[in-house]
């Protein structure tokens, strides 16, 4: 029972994060695309990323809100958070001082603060996946609707 509540809270936080991030990117699409274009790692794909990334974030948020699809939402969250965290680490290691292209309040974080923020969400996502796996193991086969 306790695991379910923790999974719900983490899923809710991830949903808020992805909806907020996607909305900020879509509302500031021109700026988001421009900042991406400056990146040495993804600059040439800025146009595609500016469309695909918020769409994937919203789709992940949607999966997190549907109980029998939540596990897939958590897996998608893990991939997104891993990629975002890797990108931030690469930016820190490169020494390139570009503004964050995240949008909204999150973009006001320094690269190091953003890395810590992402590592926390990455750890929460892993925790939720482990707990969800335990819940799925205890759930009778007939109650699963995958």
Can you characterise this structure?
The structure is a single chain. This protein is 75% helix and 0% strand. Helix 3 runs antiparallel to helix 4. With 146 residues, it is mainly alpha-helical. It has one domain. It starts with a helix and ends in an 8-residue tail after the last helix.
- Structural class of the secondary elements? mainly alpha
Number of strands: 0
State the helical fraction. Answer: over 70%
Question: What's the rounded overall pLDDT mean?
Answer: 88
Instruction: Give Rg in angstroms.
Output: 16 Å
* H-E string: HHHHH
Terminal CA distance: 21 Å
How many structural units, i.e. domains?
A: 1
Describe the main β-sheet briefly: none
| Shape label | elongated
Q: How much beta, percentage-wise?
A: under 5%
Low-confidence stretches: none
- How many distinct helices? 5
Summarize the structure.
This protein has 146 residues and is mainly alpha-helical. The protein contains 5 helices and no strands. The mean pLDDT is 88.
Question: Topology, please?
Answer:
Elements: H1 2-27, H2 29-38, H3 46-65, H4 70-94, H5 111-138
Helix pairs in contact: 1-3, 1-5, 2-3, 3-4, 4-5
């Amino acid at each position: 029972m306790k695991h379910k509540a923790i999974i719900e809270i983490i899923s809710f936080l991830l949903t808020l994060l992805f909806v907020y991030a996607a909305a900020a990117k879509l509302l500031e699409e021109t700026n988001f695309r421009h900042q991406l274009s400056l990146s040495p790692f993804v600059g040439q794909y800025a146009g595609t990323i500016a469309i695909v990334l918020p769409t994937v974030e919203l789709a992940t948020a949607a999966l997190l809100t549907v109980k029998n699809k939540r596990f897939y939402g958590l897996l998608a969250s893990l991939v997104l958070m891993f990629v975002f965290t890797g990108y931030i680490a690469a930016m820190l290691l490169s020494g390139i001082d570009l503004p964050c292209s995240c949008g909204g309040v999150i973009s006001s974080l320094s690269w190091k603060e953003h890395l810590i923020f992402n590592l926390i969400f990455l750890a929460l996502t892993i925790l939720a996946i482990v707990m969800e796996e335990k819940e799925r193991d205890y759930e009778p086969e007939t109650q699963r609707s995958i």
